[in-house]
Amino acid sequence: GERVSVIFSTSEGEHAGGVWLSFESTKEQYWLDVCMSRTDLPTTPPSARDKVWRISLYKSEGVRLNIHCNDVLVLDFVISNSVCNFNSYLSHFWSRDVEKIVFGVHDTASDYYKPLPPGQETELEKAVDGWNVVAIGLTIDHDLEAAPLQIRTDSELGSGEQ
Fold first, then answer.
1. In the chain, at which residue ranges do the beta strands (DSSP E only) sit?
2. Residue 36: HSE in the Cβ half-sphere, 13 Å Cα cutoff
3. What's this model's pTM, rounded to 2 decimal places?
4. CB-based contact 29:109 (threshold 8 Å)
5. Residue 137 · residue 105 · CB < 8 Å
6. CB-side exposure of 65: number of CA atoms within 13 Å?
């Protein structure tokens, strides 16, 4: 089945968490690297096949991860020792500054990505221009706290495509 796999790291290349989205079952699922295993998204994303996923990380009060799909908030998750299965790792990984991202080798769904300029978090990007083709395994400089990461997919639920 198809999935999104985005791994975060610091400017020095130290692991700083990551997000997986899966379209393999009848409901979209997510899991957070070094925190928790696969879980259904709490809010069902829009049904359109073409989707823009926006991943935002906020650290003003703890560590908060937001995921929007076509401008619908589908995950608002506060990462803490009480919710992470692997709690001893939390302070080591998710508290680090994310300065680089990598689309992991298991990513079969991400087609394009782009940074979203600060201040434009509420505008859904509809233009094709400015989208970068996803390259698996390539490290991309991106300050996730300064600007959300946007990913375009066209996966169908239950898709067995590889």
1. 3-9, 15-22, 29-32, 36-40, 51-58, 63-69, 72-79, 100-103, 112-115, 132-133, 139-141, 149-153
2. 17
3. 0.86
4. no
5. yes
6. 24
H helices of the chain, where? 90-93
The one-character DSSP state at 89 is G
Closest by CA to 43, choosing from 64, 19, 74, is 74
Euclidean distance between CA atoms 31 and 20, whole angstroms: 5
- pLDDT (tens, 9 = 90+) of the chain, 162 residues, equals 799 999 999 999 999 999 999 988 788 999 998 888 889 999 999 989 999 999 999 988 888 999 999 999 999 998 877 777 665 556 568 889 999 999 999 999 999 998 754 444 444 344 455 688 888 998 888 899 988 999 999 988 875 543
State the Cα–Cα distance between residues 108 and 14, nearest whole angstrom.
24
CA dist., res. 81 & res. 7, Å (int) = 20
Exposure letters 111-141 (e unless 16+ CB within 10 A, then b)? ebbbbbeeeeeeeebeeeeebeebeeeeeee
